[in-house]
Amino acid sequence: SRRRDDSSYERRQEGRKLQMAWQRLPSLLTVTLLPYSTNAWSCSGSITYRNVAVSLRVHAASLQSSRLYSSSQQQRDGLTTTDFPTTGEAHPFPTKPVGIIFDMDGTITKPCIDFANMRSRIYAICDSDPRTQNLRGDVLELVSELSEEQQAEAKRVFDDIERKAIEDMQIMDGIIEFVQHLDDFGIRRAVLTRNVGTSIIAMQDLMRRNAEANGGALLKSFDPVVARDTIARNSQTGEMETLKSKPEPDAILHICEQWGCHPADVIMIGDSAADDVACAYRAGCSSVLIQTGKDNDAGGGAAATRKEMEERVPTVSVNAIAEFHKLFSSTFGGH
Q1: Rounded to whole angstroms, what are the CA distances from 65 to 37, 42, 43, 87?
Q2: Residue closest to 81 by CA, chosen among 14, 34, 13, 26
Q3: Which of 81, 145, 196, 247 is deepest in the core (most CB within 10 A)?
Q4: Per-residue pLDDT tens for 11-41?
């Protein structure tokens, strides 16, 4: 039975690879995603692209315009994974991005949420009641399983940690220059965070003050902004409700609806593979993973299933926002 399941899974994966390859083909043939053509790999070295070339009867040489380059060159240039992972799971960058959706903590701001403290305190609340003792997982998700009294205590913990995060908030190096670049070329930008709305207000105010202090132009606000307490109208039911948090795709779909575009037209940037990258994958848009090296685990932990591993593969991974700014400029130019 397991052998049949594995066989069925592999067939579905092959079908999905072919479908994604067909969607990617125009950009692979016409768009330079990375400006290092002298280090381009032969596509015959990639299982994914070899399968694509055979299935679509495209000569491997014609696919070299995708300009994948070696891991050693990536390390020298600051990139830590290929722009198109060999698993073929990540969605490709749009040819012309309509907008970029930014995570906040660890992306727009330097990491300032004490996740270890958050996990410890919330798990202690769980253990205070025999009914929820040893309950573990993503702290924002498991709160719904707590009693009203425990939920009130958990809210005080979240409020305390987020208040401290606002006090310690610092803008990430390179982010102001990047958003100014986007504004100059009419590329829209939004915020999608699991923080509360007051944190976004504090962040936008701090960004404006930093930009003005450095002699820059007045920054426009991110629009729209989605926090874990954002209420919006459900396009299917017409009811007003709190948007589901990442990694559920609802917020990205809401932002795209506001922008009047398809998820394939946007890029999601964040520092969490479990939240930001998985959210992008489920919504159908490309993703950038910023590897800060900081603890950003809300309790969900490492991927436990094949599906979770697949949806946490980013389109590209970088060490800093400034590195993606450089990549974005060389890939898309003005737009």
Answers
A1: 8, 10, 10, 19
A2: 34
A3: 247
A4: 555 555 554 444 444 333 333 333 332 232 2
